[in-house]
């Protein structure tokens, strides 16, 4: 019997960010392994014209939750959606709901965050720092609380090369930053943002670092743990391989490469690609929840959920496997054949961006205009180039994350828990994982049918022929223009033609003799 699964039985659990990528996988696993849990409270904001209930039921009715329905048929009754906006004071939670949360919650998993790299500092601070502070305040008023688990990122200290499982101090105290956001106007915040974030690459990693300091400073007597996942990718095994539902991290770029938009990417092939499957992060999170509540460590423990030091894979190997998978399972209606390459310096990056990204987009938009349609490729390409510029920082460096706490926890689990809540990335086969990831992107993100693969392969063959035809035509035009202007080119041309003619004559003569 799994001790961790038993621990969550009968518990009231509060999850923020439950409608996000990680939050959904966390809820799924909780319901599947501890169907006797009492209730999961989820803090949700109404969105896109949907009520809270509709948003939550849409998640429960999705493919991700198919297995849950078998073991926990009354799952709809065990989830309680609470209207909340983490950007508002007291999260805009009603008095009655707040009372219920405060008096019943046993465990808090804080997943909500803005993960945008380009978010305005004010918004990133509000969600990743102030909201964390407010949630801690709420938690301190929960008499039945056993553990508070904060999800951070392994990149919260990416200005360092070697990162330990400790909370590092920030140059400016989070409280001062929070205060200043209240009275500074947007223009001044824009101006001081580069100075404040210093050697951090963006407002996301900067505010996640501030969030950790807040957790450590304001955690009081709570049992708290911090989990730092690296780049969260599709699921590895559970509830099935390859599940993914948003474009963050590598997923959007896999689509861009598979559809033939992404032709070159500035990355260091030998740099470690520190991906971690979503189900691995969730298994560690649940194990940490149990350990923190039951063993009550004296200080706030930080757990690195990374793959690089236990089972490293680099971007070169990953890129090649992504491309190899496109051969077997191509995406439908590709713009060009998937054939991306790495560039390693500014000049080649600019060159290939102009030749392989911007020029085809301009040509295609011209064609769309000619045929009376609305041009859209240049806009799409600009967005892709912007995304590439944002992720470049992360794919041209390697980091070393120590994993003592994570390994300690692994050894503290019973064999059964090690199996049910497996977070040992040493067992991960990267080639298999990446193939399933690409397949998952096709099935769950693009919603493409596997029956369409033969047609997709035919389409790629047509694109290859168009490519050859286009290149041949381009070469002949260039050559014809050159011949018209240069005596040297004409001489070379006549030399090649006469050489071919002589070769053919010789070949014909010798084959007549042999016969
Ligand atoms: C030795 C041998 C060598 C051999 C060489 C072989 C060559 C092989 C080359 C092959 C390459 C092939 C494949 C490549 C696959 C692997 C490449 C992997 C690179 C992975 C990089 C990941 C790095 C991540 C690092 C993360 C570190 C921190 C981790 C975390 O803690 S948090 C999670 C990460 N957060 C994010 O990822 C958020 C990033 N997103 C943003 O910040 C923003 O969305 C934005 C990118 C800045 C874009 O902002 P915009 O305002 O312009 O757009 P908006 O968000 O409003 O969206 C508009 C529309 O665009 C869609 N969209 C959103 N995000 C993405 C995205 N990431 N990619 C594509 N499209 C995206 C969005 O859906 C909107 O669409 P619409 O609704 O239809 O308009
Ligand atoms: N994905 C990754 O690669 C990594 C993620 N992490 C961390 O994991 C956690 C989860 O990330 P992930 O699931 O990928 O992120 P998502 O963007 O998928 O989910 C974010 C969640 O936060 C919620 N949220 C955002 N703003 C508000 C708000 N104002 N009020 C209420 N809820 C809000 C979103 O709700 P809504 O649906 O309404 O928008 C959503 O449920 C984050 O803390 C992130 O920093 C760490 C490392 C890597």
TrEMBL record:
Its main location: membrane. Residues 15-284 form the Thioester reductase (TE) domain. It is an enzyme of class 1 (oxidoreductase). It comes from the Eukaryota. The keyword Transcription regulation does not apply. It is found in: Peroxisome membrane. Gene3D superfamilies: NAD(P)-binding Rossmann-like Domain. It catalyses: hexacosanoyl-CoA + 2 NADPH + 2 H(+) = hexacosan-1-ol + 2 NADP(+) + CoA; hexadecanoyl-CoA + 2 NADPH + 2 H(+) = hexadecan-1-ol + 2 NADP(+) + CoA; a long-chain fatty acyl-CoA + 2 NADPH + 2 H(+) = a long-chain primary fatty alcohol + 2 NADP(+) + CoA; 24-methylpentacosanoyl-CoA + 2 NADPH + 2 H(+) = 24-methylpentacosan-1-ol + 2 NADP(+) + CoA. Keywords: Lipid biosynthesis, Lipid metabolism, Membrane, NADP, Oxidoreductase, Peroxisome, Transmembrane, Transmembrane helix. Its EC number is 1.2.1.84. One of its GO terms (cellular component) is peroxisomal membrane. InterPro entries: FAR, FAR_C, FAR_NAD-bd, NAD(P)-bd_dom_sf. Residues 357-448 form the Fatty acyl-CoA reductase C-terminal domain. One of its GO terms (biological process) is wax biosynthetic process. The chain crosses the membrane at residues 466-483, 492-509. It is a single-pass membrane protein. Catalyzes the reduction of fatty acyl-CoA to fatty alcohols. PANTHER family: FATTY ACYL-COA REDUCTASE 2, MALE STERILITY PROTEIN 2-RELATED. Belongs to the fatty acyl-CoA reductase family. This is Fatty acyl-CoA reductase. It comes from Capra hircus. The lineage of its organism: Eukaryota, Metazoa, Chordata, Craniata, Vertebrata.
């Amino acid at each position: 019997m799994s001790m961790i699964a038993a621990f969550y039985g009968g518990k009231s659990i509060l999850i923020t960010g439950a409608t996000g990528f990680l939050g959904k996988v966390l809820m799924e696993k909780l319901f599947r392994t501890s169907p006797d849990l009492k209730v999961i409270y989820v803090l949700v904001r109404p969105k896109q014209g949907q009520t809270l209930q509709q948003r939550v039921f849409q998640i429960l009715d999705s493919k991700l939750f198919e297995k849950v329905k078998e073991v926990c048929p009354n799952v709809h009754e065990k989830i309680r959606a609470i209207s909340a906006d983490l950007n508002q004071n007291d999260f805009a939670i009603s008095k009655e709901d707040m009372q219920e949360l405060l008096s019943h919650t046993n465990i808090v998993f804080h997943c909500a965050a803005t993960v945008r790299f380009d978010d305005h500092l004010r918004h990133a601070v509000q969600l990743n720092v102030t909201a964390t502070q407010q949630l801690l305040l709420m938690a301190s008023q929960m008499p039945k609380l056993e553990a508070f688990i904060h999800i951070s990122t392994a990149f919260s200290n990416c200005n360092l090369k070697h990162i330990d499982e400790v909370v590092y101090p920030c140059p400016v105290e989070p409280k001062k930053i929070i205060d200043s956001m209240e009275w500074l106007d947007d223009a001044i915040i824009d101006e001081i943002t580069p100075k404040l974030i210093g050697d951090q690459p963006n407002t996301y990693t900067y505010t996640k670092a501030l969030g950790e300091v807040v957790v450590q400073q304001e955690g009081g007597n709570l049992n708290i743990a911090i989990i730092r996942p690296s780049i969260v990718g599709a699921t590895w095994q559970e509830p099935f391989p390859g599940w993914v539902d948003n474009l963050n991290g590598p997923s959007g770029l896999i689509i861009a490469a598979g559809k033939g938009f992404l032709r070159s990417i500035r990355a260091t092939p030998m740099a470690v690609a520190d991906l971690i499957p979503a189900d691995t992060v969730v298994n560690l999170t649940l194990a940490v929840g149990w350990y923190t509540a039951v063993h009550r460590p004296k200080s706030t423990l930080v757990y690195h959920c990374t793959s690089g030091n236990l089972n490293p894979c680099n971007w070169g190997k990953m890129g090649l496997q992504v491309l190899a998978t496109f051969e077997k399972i191509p995406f439908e209606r590709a713009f060009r054949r998937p054939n991306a390459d790495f560039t390693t310096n500014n000049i080649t990056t600019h060159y290939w961006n102009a030749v392989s990204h911007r020029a085809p987009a301009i040509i295609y938009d011209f064609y769309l205009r000619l045929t009376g349609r609305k041009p859209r490729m240049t806009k799409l390409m600009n967005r892709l180039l912007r995304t590439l510029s944002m992720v470049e920082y992360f794919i041209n460096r390697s980091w070393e994350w120590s994993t003592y706490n994570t390994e300690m926890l692994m050894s503290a689990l019973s064999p059964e828990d090690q199996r049910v809540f497996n977070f040992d990335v040493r067992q991960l086969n990267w080639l298999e994982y990446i193939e399933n990831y690409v397949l998952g992107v096709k099935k769950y993100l693009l919603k493409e049918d596997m029956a369409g693969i033969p047609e997709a392969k035919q389409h790629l063959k047509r694109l290859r022929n168009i490519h050859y035809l286009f290149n041949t035509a381009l070469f002949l035009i260039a050559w014809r223009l050159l011949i018209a202007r240069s005596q040297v080119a004409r001489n070379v041309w006549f030399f090649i033609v006469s050489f071919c003619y002589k070769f053919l004559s010789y070949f014909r003569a010798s084959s007549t003799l042999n016969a």
